Amino acid sequence: MAGAPPPAPQGSAAHPGSGAPRLRALRRRPRQPSWQYGRPHPDLCSPRSYYRGAAFHVLSPAAVLSAGASGLPRAFRCTWSTHVRHRCLRVGAPSLQTRLRRGTWHRPAPALGRPVLPPPPAAELRGQDFARPPHSWNVHRPRDPRSQHGFPGGRAGPPLPSPEPAGLPGHRPRRANAFLEELRPGSLERECREERCSLEEAREIFRDARRAEQFWLSYTDGDQCASNPCRNGGSCEDQLQSYICFCPDSFQGRNCETNKKDLLVCVNENGGCEQYCSDRAEGGRSCRCHEGYTLQDDGVSCAPTVEYPCGKIPVLEKRNGSNAQGRIVGGRVCPKGECPWQAILMVDGVLLCGGTLLNAAWVVSAAHCFETRKNWRNLTVVLGEHDLREQEGEEQVRRVARVFIPDKFVPGKTNHDIALLQLNRPVTFTDHVVPLCLPEKSFSERTLASVRFSTVSGWGQLLHRGATAVQLMAIDVPRVMTQDCQEQSRQWEGLPAVTENMFCAGYLDGSKDACQGDSGGPHATKFQGTWYLTGIVSWGEGCAAEGHFGVYTRVSRYIEWLHRLMNTNTTLRGLLRAPLP
């Protein structure tokens, strides 16, 4: 009808039941009651408008005004915020800041009349894969309370909004979904950072197998070098559940934590010295060489100064410059010239014991070899021997001028089982006659004792109560801890005790051992290319008896005694007892 006012739109003053349009109209007015501008008003909340845990139930101010302020309880306080959002609290409830700190407050509704879904707990978000479709997220949706209680005016509220990926914290939308994505060049950011890539995709990106493998280790296993474990300037390389540190020249260790200068002490790998090492009082160490060697400019190496230095095997040195790796061991023949310090003691042409050449005039053997021998005129020592059946032209035969044994040696016992023989005239060093080095005591006990395997040689019996060997034999035997040897010997009654002047070597299975006729022979240990005398074949239970080790005289206990006797001039002959220091 002409001139009639148009019908009032929904949300106007004529329709107080609506929410948002009425609010926009109120905000455009210059003057409004104080409750519309953010100040608290005690009559603008209903019992359903405070936070109930699952969602906010917010009523518009227009709906509240239509219901009448007198009907609202005073137990609720409401604040009308400037961005048109309702927050209602009980009187005496914690402040907003306190609830934020406790994690009990959630964001208000994005619009009037719409409930707000609280974000899922952090424990649920932590394991979520945001690349999955939204319907698979682990978000607990509460039922819409408006469908049960209804909104003012009898109308149901708008439907619950579906959660969007952008609303979740820290989420970035997937962007590798462009047109013809497979035709675009590989990108590490697009293929493996924004999405989950495979090893083949990583290889296409890097186009280098090594770089791709390194990336894949850190991509799937985590970067083990992220914490920078390498110290003192070392560089880290990531490995599968591990890492490798490449250290500067002056550092070493798993994490480059050790300064090599701090390791230059004799107890640590002999201080890096080739032969003898001495610790300095002011710190550090100094290297020395055995007689017949000289220290090189590097301060650690030793070079021979004579044609036939002790502890070297000339036939191997001249053959191909090799070392004892060419030796035939394990109970087989020691090739001619490869045991040049081996001596054989004979009485009237019969094998008595073995021995070791220490220098041109002295041979060391076992004391028990001379328990019953009184006629020294028929005792001879042969050097350079290999095959007892024939004369090979390398043999040197000498008479014995005198024999020294410790004054504490008791015949029939095994302690102090060592003897020193002086030849009537010196031997001549050749490729087949070379002395074995007698080491310093500290070097023998600290360094040589830690060497696992040593070599024992002789012409002893091949089997228990069997025939003796006609060719020189050699075996490699492992050194055994003295405590283990003592415990093993206690299990057998009637065996001599293993003292501090002895050590054990061999195998419990009885596969390799010294035997009758090998007594007095050398137990030689190699260190840095030079061989040293560490033991003398002494005694054992049978020959390679199962469950028994071979027992050897510990030469390091008698080094001072040996040097004193070799430097003594005497005219006495025969068997002599020399006091121990």
Shape: elongated
CATH class of the domain at 326-565, named Mainly Beta
First CA to last CA: what distance?
140 Å
Oligomer: single chain
Q: How does the major sheet shape up?
A: 6 strands, antiparallel, barrel
Portion in strands: 15-25%
Number of H/I helices: 12
- The CATH architecture assignment of the domain at 326-565 turns out to be Beta Barrel
Strand order of the largest sheet: 18-19-20-23-22-21
The share of residues in helices is: 10-25%
Q: What is the CA-based Rg, rounded?
A: 48 Å
CATH topology of the domain at 326-565: Thrombin, subunit H
EC number: 3.4.21.21
Subcellular location: Secreted
Protein name: Coagulation factor VII
Enzyme class: hydrolase
Question: What is this entry, summarized?
Answer:
It is built from 12 helices and 24 strands.
Record the SSE blueprint.
Layout: H1 20-28, H2 61-67, E1 76-80, E2 86-90, H3 96-102, H4 122-126, H5 146-149, H6 188-193, H7 199-206, H8 209-221, E3 235-239, E4 242-246, E5 251-252, E6 258-259, E7 276-279, E8 285-288, E9 293-295, E10 302-304, H9 314-320, E11 332-333, E12 342-347, E13 350-359, E14 362-365, E15 379-383, E16 396-406, E17 419-423, H10 441-446, E18 453-458, E19 473-480, H11 482-490, E20 502-505, E21 522-527, E22 530-539, E23 550-554, H12 559-566, E24 574-578
Parallel strand pairs: 16-24
Antiparallel strand pairs: 1-2, 3-4, 5-6, 7-8, 9-10, 11-19, 12-13, 12-15, 13-14, 14-17, 15-16, 16-17, 18-19, 18-21, 19-20, 20-23, 21-22, 22-23
Helix pairs in contact: 7-8
